[in-house]
Amino acid sequence: MGVGITMMLVSTFVAIYYNVIIAYSIYYLFASFQYPLPWSAKDCNSTGLLDCFFSKEARVSVEKYWDEVALQRTSSMNETGPVVWHLALCLLLAWILVGAALFKGIKSSGKVVYFTATFPYVVLFILLIRGVTLEGAKDGIEFYIGSKSNLTKLTDSEVWKDAATQIFFSLSIAWGGLMALSSYNKFYNNCYQDSIIVCITNCGTSVFAGFAIFSILGHMAHVYQRPVSEVADAGFGLAFIAYPDALSKLPISPLWSILFFVMLITLGLDSQFAGIEVIATCLQDAYPKLLKSKRGIVTTAVCIVLFLLGLPCITRVGIPFTPFTMIKMHYMKGGNRFIKDIEMMIGSKSALFWLWWRACWFFITPVVLSIILVWSLYTFTSPTYGSVAYPDWGISLGWCMTAFCLIWIPILAVWKVYKASGGPWQVKQDVHVLSEKKYFHNSKSMYIYIFEFLK
């Protein structure tokens, strides 16, 4: 139960702030229907920065546009300020899009995903073709993967932590999304084949997107006569500062900007669908008699509540539990039992076939993730947003949110053992007996069984 509650809480917290990012993208999409783009910087060397910035005819720089126009950001987190109304409207639109797509559950979202999952590939391909034809694109690609890559970054714990976080997020590992969506599969669906295809496609897409992004960043570095490392920001800086700045330098810049932000929106909606599906499915399974036949009402209520909770994120202040799952799967359920459940769906496999997966599930993955977690905690430094340091109360709030998600795992584990008859080993045997007696009529009953196991 502890892992299940943690999945639910993580999905809720992520859904709140992730739709805020989609709202930023929607705002920039609307702003892209202007020529020239409103963040296209004017040469201010001759007129002076202040005169250029406050001139009605001038276009502010992309960074100032992000901070002072889009976010209307205050100087510190201690100055909250009012809700930024244009971002609130964009956030409302983002939640309307999510709610409309998920209103009828998988029947409606499945059709929407045909577009949101394929359109980004079309845009990435177009941006790649345009990017590699620009002067300086080679420098950007060599910085990305080549002779100019900074391999010393591999010794930075923050890089490994970010990489692990990205993989977990993009694959929805241990967040409940995989189980919620896979429950709609046919029972004998080849989940092994699907998992391999999804993992390869996910990682391949990231590499492919890197070429499209860095080819254009290389061109921007060429225009500014600066190293690529100085224009290749990370996170918000890349999506809303560096890349929009690069797009503003291209001919027909509004077209490329529109394509880019439509791509960001569709990518964001795909991820958001999985998170909201987890929340809605958990609520319906927890209260089946009351909510099972009211999917539209549940989805609408979830979207309204999360929209209201997201409003503090658009004020002017601006902007790790998988090892437990592995340990529980191995020591409580038992690796052999878990493998037999998989073979029930995909057919029997040889012992050699399972050797690699046993090593990954029960040794390699828990050990690697534990090392990354301990390493990142040991080298932890207080986060900053640009040059602005987060206040102590903000850092404390972040740690409290993390603890609030994770604390349910040990608490409910101890509670379950205390309430059960016999010791921990007897509880393990009871789980095995439950697994033996379980009969799956379809994938939904398999999902319910897995959900019961996670409890």
UniProtKB/TrEMBL annotation:
Coiled coil: none
GO-annotated cellular components: plasma membrane
UniProt GO molecular function: (R)-carnitine transmembrane transporter activity; alanine transmembrane transporter activity; beta-alanine transmembrane transporter activity; branched-chain amino acid:sodium symporter activity; metal ion binding; neutral, basic amino acid:sodium:chloride symporter activity
Keyword Transport: yes
Annotated compartments: Membrane
Membrane topology: Multi-pass membrane protein
Sorted UniProt keywords: Membrane, Metal-binding, Sodium, Transmembrane, Transmembrane helix, Transport
Keyword field contains Transport: yes
Record-listed Na(+) binding positions: 170, 202, 267, 270-271
Protein name: Sodium- and chloride-dependent neutral and basic amino acid transporter B(0+)-like
GO annotation terms (biological process): amino acid import across plasma membrane
Transmembrane segments: 7-30, 83-103, 112-129, 163-184, 196-217, 255-276, 296-319, 355-378, 393-415
